[in-house]
Amino acid sequence: MTATRTSTAARGHVALPKAAALVEALPWLKSFSGRTIVIKYGGNAMTTPALQQSFAEDVVFLRYAGVRVVVVHGGGPQITAHLERLGVDSEFRGGFRVTTPETIEVVRMVLVGQVSSEVVGSINAHGPFAVGLSGEDAHLFTAERRDVIVDGQPVDIGLVGEVVEVQPQIVEALLDEGKVPVVATIARGRSGEVYNVNADTAAAALAVALSAEKLVVLTDVEGLYASWPASAADSSPAPTAADVLSQLTVDELEQLLPDLSSGMVPKMEACLAAVRGGVGRAHVLYGRVPHSLLLELFTDEGVGTMVVPS
Questions:
Q1: Angle at 42 (CA atoms; ends 145, 178), nearest 5 degrees
Q2: Residue 27: which residues within 8 A CB-CB, separation 6 or more?
Q3: What is the CB neighbour count within 10 angstroms for residue 34?
Q4: Higher pLDDT, 169 or 95
Q5: 125-151 confidence digits (pLDDT tens)
Q6: What is the mean pLDDT of residues 156-170?
């Protein structure tokens, strides 16, 4: 009997850290229950089956915790891979893919037909939750053609659109039914043309339209580095997780934007637009860390960079 008691006690002590983690999450679970969180799920966070599975588990955990979750996904690596198979080179300007009339249908096919189906399938392996949408569905996104500024000059990037109108009713209806909308970022123009829309900026526009509590951007870096402009411009050591800014205001972010690398600009502009538009917080997280979403939302320390109102 004594041996049994000792064994049980030992097992209990081993499990104590798990109980502590649950207790730490309690206030965050309470504050987020019933709130809307928009997650931008990027192609670089989809690179392995293990990462795809952990992301799906995080989304389902949030759903069971009472959070209204919306996933807005990109698919840059998948688009690039498909274009390479077709012998088409990919070109980027100012952090955005140049999209020609010849490539827009490939972009549309990959985002809607491949990536969206995979994301929906990985979430629905845990229950009947996810529903795939395109920005074209029910006029969810209306876009206008946009240029980008490179070295102070506007540059044409083809059939790339900026979201100018969001009709979120279809997303709200799905959320009210306990579903997880999974949105591919293809949008229609006012004259019926089809645009490739950057997933970061589309997620921000949707978060504002839904009056979301948070926008979370999953990316391929740990967050926004305090030393990034210097280390990118000279031979300084590469930034590490210790250099990540854990929090900054929208005013502070606005001052940093001109010095950021082209790849980070759309992500940080999205955070800026979301918080300026009324979203409570915006986060940039390292999408290649399993369960980074739960670590940011449900631990006291958090991970990544959080953007807050000034």
A1: 95
A2: none
A3: 11
A4: 169
A5: 999 999 999 999 999 999 999 888 777
A6: 94
Secondary structure of residue 53 in the 3-state scheme:
helix
Tell me the pTM. Answer: 0.86
CB proximity list for 211: less than 8 A, separation 6 or greater: 36, 278, 279
Amino acid present at 152: G
**pLDDT for position 46:** 74
State which amino acid sits at residue 15. Answer: A
| pLDDT the model gives residue 300 | 67
Look at 60 and 236; give whichever has higher pLDDT. Answer: 60
Give, for 205, the enclosing helix (H) or strand (E): helix 199-209
155-to-64, 98, 171, 264, 265 alpha-carbon distances in Å: 45, 10, 33, 18, 15
Q: Tokens for 221? A: 């870096």
pLDDT in tens, 227-258: 654 444 444 545 555 578 888 999 999 998 88
Is the distance from CB of 40 to CB of 270 less than 8 angstroms?
yes
Strands (E), the chain: 36-41, 68-73, 92-93, 96-97, 130-134, 141-150, 153-166, 180-184, 186-188, 194-197, 214-219, 247-249, 281-286, 305-308
Spell out a b/e string for 42-66, using b for 16 or more CB atoms within 10 Å of the CB, else e.
bbbbbeeeebbebbbbbbbbbbebe
Q: What is the pLDDT of residue 44?
A: 65
CB 273 within 8 A of CB 219: no
3-state secondary structure (DSSP) of residue 1 = coil
Q: What does the block give as tokens for 245?
A: 């800014």
